[in-house]
Every structure is written in structure tokens, then in C-alpha cells.
Amino acid sequence: MNAPFPLTRSSVRIAALHDPNEITRIEAYVARHPHGTPFHRPAWFLSVAEATGNEAHALVKTRQGEIVAFLPFDAIHSPVFGRVLASTGFAVGGGLLANEDVDPRSMFAAAEELARRLSCPTIELRGGPMPQEQGGWALKTESHCNFARPLAADDETQLLDIPRKQRADVRKALANDLTVEVGTAERDRQAHYEVFCESYRNLGTPVFPRALLDSVVDAFGAQADILTVRHEGKPVASVISVYHGGAVMPYWGGGTWEARRLRANDRMYYELMLHARRRGCTVFDFGRSKTNSGAYHFKRNWGFEPELLTYATWTRPGTAKRGADPTSSKLSLQIKVWQRLPLPVANRLGPLIARGIG
């Protein structure tokens, strides 16, 4: 399905993702586009597809041989939630990238055709220009917010930029017997996954397979790292971050129960702000959170202001809408059950389920 062929009479085609030259052109387009994100990069959507056993696809529109629009997808299959064409999978962003003079409608039409060919009854666009609410498309606003703000000029100013109450917690964390390590070696990955598994179980969420996390770290190379906070040598908080366009994005992170007492999560994010600035970053992108959730308020406590996000979904006429909302009564019950699972059981079952959530 990745071989290029026309989907419409326009110049929209399926990207040849097996071709290294095509990948290079796409990476360059994402890098120079002002709204490009880590989740648009082939380094992301190809890696997560391979690691989870799903399929990666992309649409490109060209003009005189140059890419003028790009829309990446992961085709994700779940025995629980069904099939979905997500832009992009296992990400909080994605969607269409297009030059200002490009009409996006041909790309949306091509996405619908691709979904039909792949037997995906649902499309999810997690960013970018949005289609009109017609022909099976629906927009979802105010359900999620993103949080980002500039980094300060030095360590002390960064600390003072944090609101008083949260700053007091960071100062307490700095006074605790904690050490901080940054790297991507096996020691860093193992420590992160140990913390990540416990954190996800405590949240009632099936944990992703470690292969997914490793694949992204490997694909991003120097643009990804792992920051781990240890207490008496034991990892208690850890986060994988990716770097793009002068911004750091802490993405897969968590802490153990012990991390709460030690305020290790507070130390982790403050240290990441300092580390990112030393790497040359100017923006800390805290990512998205569900509106009025615990994570939403946690990020506001750090002085980040919410920016409302809009998502688009397409449901093939005659099919039911995909039901993967964790706030639904059915899934809320499942979350409570999962939180009670013994950690070894959750770690064994979680990756089998999570690879289909997307």
C-alpha cells in the first residue's frame, strides 16, 4: 500500500515510504514547515508502526516535483476499539501540513479514500487545518488543551518563573537526597521503563511495549533523551523527551508512589527545563492534557496557560463512532479494575492491549 499511485485527478499520492529519498524529502519538509511537530516526522510514525505491529502510511501533494502538503498516518487495529487511521498514532499531535496556497480539501478527500481502501471506518486528525463538518467529518473542541511557554535565561530565573506554591515544592525536591541522570543507554532505558510501567498501572492505563519507546529514542537519535531521578540509586521518576524546532517535549514520563513523597516529579521537570536550555532550547512544550483533568491543573500550577485544541474525526457513513474515551462509564470501570492488578500482571498484559489503542 505504500507504493505511490494517484488517489484523485490532482497531484495527491501515497508516499513511497520504502524509498530513502522520499523519507529525506518528507523530513526536510517537516523541518522547514512552521507547524511541523515531532509527530509528523517519519522518525515517529514509521517507528511506532513497526514497534507496535501496525501500518504506516502518508499522503503527499506535489507541485513541480516539490512537496506542498503532507499528511502522515498510522493504521491501527485494536480488537477492542476496531481500526482507525490516526494522524498520528500514539501521539498528541499530527494532522495536515500544507503550504499557505494549498487547498486542503483534496488531502481530506484522499484521506477518506485511503481509509476505505484500508478498511478503516474512522480517521482521527490530531492537529493541523480542519475539514468542514460534513460528509462524515466532526470537530471536537475544548476536550483537550496544550501547554507551552518560553524557557528562562538562567537557572535561578527559571525557578522564579514557577508560581510560588509550585516553586516551594521544587525547592523541597532540590533539598531531598535525589540524583539526576540523562542518557539513552540501556541503564537509562531500563530505569525509565521500570518507572513507566508502575506509573501507568497506577493510572489504570495499559502500558506501551518497551519496543515502542526504544524505537522512538533510536529513530530520533540526538533529538531524544531520557532524564531519570533516583533516590538511593533506585529510579523514582523518569521521562523520555524529544526535541524539535527549539522546543523540548517531555512525552513519556511518570513516577512511582515513592516519587510523590520525595517530590521527584517536580525535580524531574525542573531539571528538564534546565537541561533543555543548555541544549539550546527556547520553549518547554508540556504537551496536551484533558481539560480540567489532574494533569491539566498540574501544568497550570507550573505557570503554563492552556491553549484549546481542536481535533477532527471522520466516520464512514453507516458505521458506529469509535468509542475510546477514557471518561466513558464503561472505560472508567475498566480503569479502576486495571489499577488493582498486580504489577507483573499489568506489565504482561498491558503491551498486548496498548499497541492497539493508538
TrEMBL record:
Residues 165-300 form the BioF2-like acetyltransferase domain. Signal peptide: none annotated. Pfam families: Acetyltransf_6. InterPro entries: Acyl_CoA_acyltransferase, BioF2-like_GNAT_dom, PEP-CTERM_FemAB-rel, PG_Glycine_Bridge_Synth. It comes from the Bacteria. This is FemAB family PEP-CTERM system-associated protein.
